[in-house]
Specification:
The chain is of the alpha+beta class. Helix content is 54%, strand content 12%. The chain has a domain of 75 residues: Orthogonal Bundle (Arc Repressor Mutant, subunit A). The protein has a three-stranded antiparallel beta sheet with strand order 3-5-4. Strands 1-2 form a two-stranded antiparallel ribbon. The N and C termini lie far apart (88 Å). One of its GO terms (molecular function) is DNA-binding transcription factor activity.
């Protein structure tokens, strides 16, 4: 079983699979504003309630949502702590890519320094790097 640092890969897979669906991401976004009943959540989607409940169950299996039934109303609540799996995985990926870009930046800086040094070493000693007229051209000055 692969590990992402302290994050179990199978845990991350379950959470990312649940978040792969746009309907489920929209439910998570809505629950981020507070608890809501299943019927209230379902009104924003063009699907039958039983189909919507499948999405809620997928979020429950992933541990992202908990539901409580009181009477005839099933209320959904976001488990914000479970989103730490996503946050942890993203932090690890960010660190990996920052190290890679830092190494690339250092490599390019070394290449630029080596290129500048090589150009200076290959330049004839009597050639100036300062801009000015060529040796064949005479400088003319207005002397008044």
């Amino acid at each position: 079983m692969a590990q992402y640092g302290a994050i179990d890969a199978s845990e991350a897979d379950v959470v990312f699979a649940a978040l792969a669906d746009p309907t489920r991401r929209a439910v998570i976004a809505r629950l981020g504003r507070g608890d809501a009943g299943v019927s209230a959540l379902a009104t924003g989607f063009d699907m039958a309630l039983p189909s919507f409940l499948k999405h809620v169950r997928a979020l429950e299996r992933a541990g992202l949502v908990t539901t409580v039934k009181r009477g005839r109303v099933r209320t959904c609540r976001l488990d914000r702590a479970r989103l730490a799996v996503v946050d942890g995985w993203l932090a690890e990926q960010r660190a990996i890519w920052e190290r890679r870009t830092d190494r690339l930046e250092a490599f390019l800086a070394d290449e630029a320094t080596a290129s500048t040094s090589a150009d200076a070493a290959n330049r004839p000693a009597n050639v100036s790097t300062r801009p000015g007229p060529a040796k064949d051209q005479k400088e003319t000055h207005d002397e008044r």
